[in-house]
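queue> holo job accepted (coenzyme A)
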Amino acid sequence: MSERPAKAASDSRVTLSLIMMPEHANMYGNVHGGVIMKLVDEAAGTAAVRHAQRPVVTVAIDSMTFLSPVHVGELISCSAKVTYVGRTSIEVRVTVEAEDIMAGKKTHTNSACAVFVALDDDRRPCDVPGLLITSDEERRDWELGRARQEARVTASKRPGA
Ligand SMILES: CC(C)(COP(=O)(O)OP(=O)(O)OC[C@H]1O[C@@H](n2cnc3c(N)ncnc32)[C@H](O)[C@@H]1OP(=O)(O)O)[C@@H](O)C(=O)NCCC(=O)NCCS
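queue> job finished
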């Protein structure tokens, strides 16, 4: 663990928002899943950099299921929060909402977890600050995050991974 002081998830929490334009969508006005995945990666990466205060690279993004379509003209917001940290890795959970801003209606479209690794000046993995747990919910998030991270690392070692 880093010698730097542990930080709370609230120190790095971030929300990125973007209005969906025609270039984000197919010919029927439905936003491409890849556009949302990129925003998720950017929001999660920003939270990870805020936590590590180092450059980071994405090492894993868990599978995403889109629960409802997003349309041109809607405001997409990706809210990212650090849920678990290892020695050099940081797991961030992102919650995605689409807002029909004329109707004032928000829809949860999907959630996703991504893992980043902090890099030192030689681009090698380096220690990250610990994560302060400030609530029962954050303790549960931590335990779930640790289990997910163990599963990711185990899966990546399977032949053919
Ligand atoms: C991320 C990277 C630096 C890790 O290098 P590495 O030699 O595997 O380093 P380590 O074995 O020390 O692992 C570093 C951390 O990554 C974690 N990790 C490794 N493989 C992982 C996986 N498949 N899923 C989640 N975490 C993983 C390790 O558990 C470790 O975390 P910890 O220190 O908190 O325990 C290297 O794989 C890399 O550069 N990948 C490309 C990243 C990139 O370019 N991403 C952009 C999108 S392509």
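queue> The first strand starts at residue 7 and ends at 8.
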